[in-house]
Structure formats: C-alpha cells, structure tokens
Write a structure and sequence with these properties.
This protein is α/β, with parallel strands linked by helices and about 325 residues long. It has helices at about 60-65, 105-115, 135-145, 165-175, 195-205, 210-220, 225-235, 240-250, 280-290, 305-310, 310-330, and strands spanning about 80, 90-95, 115-120, 155-160, 180-185, 190, 250-255, 265-270, 295-300. It is built from eleven helices and nine strands. The chain has a seven-stranded mixed β-sheet, sandwiched between helices.
C-alpha cells in the first residue's frame, strides 16, 4: 500500500496495466507513453498566492523561491527515466524552451551507462506535461523543486539547458538541499527588454512546421534522432506557451541569484563564433571571478544546443561536476 498522500510511479513499459505500484522515488507520476497526460491523474491543481515581482525579474529573497508559488496553478510533471533507481548517483535533466525531456536521450543514455539514475521531466507546457494559463519562472521553479530522486534526498547533479538552466539556477538558489551540484548549458542569465520581441518571433518561427530534414540541414553535426526529437517537441508546444513564458517574467536579470547558490556551479557557454551563444566569454569569466563556487568554459564548435552538438562533452562535464561536488561535501 502507498503511504497517505504518496504519489506513485506508473510503469511506462506496461501500457496495458492500470495498477499504480508504489515506489520510493518521485513525488510525481510517470504516465505511459500512450496515455492522456492531460487527464485526471495529471490535472493542474492548487490556488496560487504569489504576486510576481516587477521587471527585471528577480526573487526578493531566498525564502520567496522556496515558499512562494505564483499567480497561477501547480502542475505535476511527467518524467522519463534511464538507469537503476537504486544507483548511487542521480541526475535531473531540465530541457529548454519548446523542447521536452526526450531530447536528452544521448546524455541520459551516456550517464546511465556510467551507473547513474537519470530523470528528465517535461516542463509545464511542454511535451506531455499539463498546460496551464500562466508560465512565470516561479511556476517552473515550484514544479521542479518537487522532484527528488527519493524522498528527502538531493540530486547529485542537475543539468539545465537554456530555460532549463535558468530554472536549475533559481531552484538551487532557493534550496540548499535540493542538489549537490549544477551544470548550466548556455542559459540566458540576462534577457533585456529589447530582446524579448525578437526572441519571441524567432522561437515562434522555429516551431512553425519544423521538419527533420530542415533541422539537419541547419545543424549537419546533429544526430538524426536529435533532429527528430526537436521536431516532435516543437510540434506539441504552442505559440501561446512560448508567448506566456517570455511575457510572464521577462525581461530578467538572474545574475544576483548566483550569490545564493551554495553548491558547485559549472557554466558552459556555446562557442561565441557560433553566433548563438547566450553566455559570452566576458560574462562567464566575470561571473567565475566573482563566485568561488562557479567555473566557466565555452565549448568550441558548439552552438546554443550544447547537448546536441557535443553530447560527449556534456557527459564528461557531468562526471567532473559530480567529482567536484563530492570533494566539496566531504568532511
């Protein structure tokens, strides 16, 4: 029997089973691939009480990140998993805007092969996750802080790409016991008011009738599965979601929240020569000089989608981040 209030895991491999077996793992359900993820088991719930701060966006204090919700509703996130839940190390992978958990397939497989338990949720409004009427950063953070590898246990590492990196940063800033280390892949730490409209137009264009062939022609170094997963994710995210994500909390300046992150942070930027980098060397080097727990590097030859352009580098960085975290937390 499940404990009162415990949310159980569903067997994603048994599409014919209606049983919900108890598992000491996440406080979120995992729906089968052919299930209706907007059905009763994954409905949004809960009234919100938080008023969003004025722009540029920043939380007023660390307490706000942990205890405040937002002007909207709470959602439970469907997740994909790789590896053994009993593995000695765990990692959470947070995707970017218009993406989904499945895009981490190469990084997830590589880390699982190294003995990690890997979890990749679909964030609100993306993939199989519930849709809602509001998409402020507070909402993404609240959703994500509920995810744990086991009750009361921190992640050994959280990796976030782009918007996922923003969410990972804010969640780590708000909770000292949520993760032992963070790996940020080219997150937009600052988004100025003049950047919002062009970014919105560019992103809407990207999700309008995408094709695998078209994406591969623009990114010849990608694996065909990367392009396929990008198309699949783009086809199910709506222009409304994109517009609300960018309008509910942008512009933003998230650099001050690095002051509240107590764990090691590895910041990877795209190659500045790619023309798609969110984090340029001058910003990364400045932040590394200011924060003793942060290190920065850019990935030569990689564009903004570092996990697609250089999956092996991300896996290697993840293993290195875990070693750094272990050294930091050792007595």
């Amino acid at each position: 029997m499940c404990a009162p209030g415990e949310v159980v895991l569903l067997d994603v491999n048994d599409h014919n089973s209606s049983a919900h077996t108890c598992s000491a793992s996440f406080p979120v359900p995992i729906p089968p691939h052919d299930s209706n993820c907007y059905g009763p088991d994954l409905q949004c719930h809960g009234a919100a009480v938080f008023s969003a701060p004025s722009s540029p966006f920043h939380f007023r204090s660390r307490k706000d990140i942990v205890t405040a919700t937002y002007t909207g509703i709470s959602v439970e996130l469907p997740v994909l998993t790789w590896g053994d839940p009993a593995a000695s190390r765990s990692v959470l992978l947070l995707h970017g805007l218009t993406s989904a958990g499945a895009v981490w397939w190469r990084v997830a497989s590589g880390l699982a092969a190294e003995g990690w338990f890997v979890v990749a949720p679909d964030q609100r409004g993306h993939g199989r996750a519930p849709r809602t009427t509001s998409y402020p950063l507070e909402g993404f953070v609240a959703d994500t802080l509920r995810l744990r590898p086991a009750p009361g246990k921190p992640w050994d590492l959280v990796i976030g790409h782009s918007l996922g990196g923003v969410v990972a940063l804010l969640a780590a800033a708000g909770s000292d016991d949520w993760t032992r280390s963070v790996l940020l892949l080219d997150p937009p730490l600052t988004l100025g008011p003049d950047s919002v409209a062009p970014l919105l137009a560019e992103t809407i264009a990207e999700i309008t009738d995408p094709t695998t062939a078209g994406i591969l022609s623009q990114n010849p170094g990608w694996h065909a599965e990367d392009a396929h997963q990008k198309v699949e994710a783009a086809r199910v995210v709506s222009p409304f979601t994109v517009e609300r994500v960018l309008s509910d909390t942008s512009p933003w300046d998230l650099e001050p929240h690095l002051d509240d992150v107590r764990v090691p942070v590895r910041l990877l930027g795209a190659d500045p020569a790619s023309g798609s980098a969110s984090v340029l060397p001058e910003q990364g080097e400045r932040l590394a000089a200011r924060h003793a727990n942060l290190s920065y590097a850019f990935v030569a030859g990689a564009g903004h989608s570092i996990h697609r352009d250089s999956a092996d580098r991300v896996i290697a960085e993840a293993l290195g981040a875990a070693i750094t975290a272990a050294r930091t937390t050792s007595p």
